[in-house]
């Protein structure tokens, strides 16, 4: 008889306090219900307060794994991207969030993990380990990620150079990467503002890209980052000119 | 005493008895076995840290071992309170505790086997656990027994509806086993609370099952002997198992005489048989969980109980004891026969 394939939860050996702040965290049914409820609330807020507009939703893959990438200039970005998903996938993806911002202190840690469904990413120390863990989860078809390759919020609203980390995640794999352009979020909630103002946020979703023929080395990672940056910039231009995703 | 009146199939009882059984802790100390077991457990918990300190000071245990013993003792305090207090409070508290126990155990099972990723069948099992404990709380025996075929049928139907034969047998089998372990078997913990004598019965079972583990450990360390099942549980020995068999059988029969004083099962052979059942089934339950863990390649099912591991690691010995003892007692003298049935469903559950 062939042996069965057991996939024990990745965070099984972690105590509860460490589980919330672990990049290996996996959800169970109860936390999934909390995520779904929270993201429905976020979407309602964005529709009413920020007049969220989504274009190109049909380009989002229907099943994991996939990665959504976008320009980043506001705390509203992750909420806008996550709220752009079809109703059946709301709350399912993991926004990858800076651990030094969203996972400091136990309360913030629990809130980020339980309501946002965020995964912590160490931007400085151990980033290679974090990337490797995320790559394994994508290859195992366990996760959908929301990622901002600029690495931090733009302080002037312009798109800055995409870092190579996104390439390390997907180069040489069949994981679809969906480029998205977010406009209006910087104006509604700039980095130096404590609370969001009313505004008009638009998410323009492009066609998914695959990088299975790209080599999994620095050169390949740079190529991936450059391609995605170019697509996101083009989507932003299309958004501003009123066109849909190309 | 006249038999209870019947109306439309529903047994009418003295509603004060049912209400008192469900909600009132006032009668908690009526049975002497209840008082004796609770005092015994309390005394053991109070004395244990004193004994550990003495052992450390006389050099019979090292400092790390003493710390480990204290860690385990702290978990034992929480476990004891978590089980004894609801039993004393009333049957409703027992139903809630039984449900929480089932859910926590199933959560560990689902996460270790990976079943939690199969959301559809995972949800069916959770709903099945709720159904079992609802049936127990309702004193609705026909639904309690029907829960297994209802849930397993739903599991296969949901698994087929996914139209993905890859891994079909695995996810159906894992879901079915999970429901049997955490729903059907553990559900009998709740159903015992439908008997007027439930407090001493549950305390007796819990005490004897947990002491069975302790006896196996003590006898295993006291006597050298071959391993019992070396590939499944390297720590268990034949001497430990045999010693526990004898000790637990005698202890369970002895305490059982006070628990069932004057009832049908209060018969030497029956009590010894039940004691033997607790001893054998408790150890088999332990080996079942060990087999699951070895198959999965893990040491513990979880980390919720410091020093013990997960809930299933602590309560594995109960898994087979509860259903078997329930049906032995139910066959010989009935469980909850003098209590109102279908408390929630009423005539709907008793056409």
Given helix and strand content, the structural type of chain A is alpha/beta
Structural class of chain B: mainly alpha
Total count of helical runs of at least 4 residues of chain A: 9
**If interface size is counted as residues with C-beta under 8 Å from the partner's C-beta, which chains form the largest one?**
A-B, 16 and 21 residues
- Based on CA atoms alone, the radius of gyration of chain B comes out at 21 Å
Radius of gyration of chain A: 17 Å
**Quick check: average pLDDT of chain A?**
90
Q: How would you describe the shape of chain B?
A: globular
Percentage of residues in DSSP E strands of chain B: under 5%
What's the helix count of chain B?
Answer: 12
**Poorly predicted runs of chain A:** none
The number of E-state strands of chain A comes to 7
The spatial strand order of the largest sheet of chain B comes to 1-2
Provide the low-confidence segments of chain B as ranges. Answer: 1-16
How is this structure best described in words?
The complex is a heterodimer of chains A (246) and B (351). With 246 residues, chain A is of the alpha/beta class. Chain A is 39% helix and 13% strand. Chain A has 9 helices and 7 strands. In chain A, strands 1-7-6-2-5-3-4 form a 7-stranded mixed sheet, sandwiched between helices. In chain A, α2 (29-49) crosses α3. The longest helix of chain A has 24 residues, at 218-241. Chain A is globular. With 351 residues, chain B is mostly helical. Helices cover 70% and strands 3% of the residues of chain B. A two-stranded antiparallel ribbon of chain B has the order 1-2. Chain B has a two-stranded antiparallel sheet with strand order 3-4. In chain B, α2 (32-57) runs antiparallel to α3, α5 runs antiparallel to α6 (141-161) and α6 (141-161) packs antiparallel against α7 (168-192). The longest helix of chain B is centred in the C-terminal third of the chain and has 29 residues, at 268-296. Residues 1-16 of chain B have low confidence and may be disordered. At the A-B interface, loops of A face α4 and α5 of B.
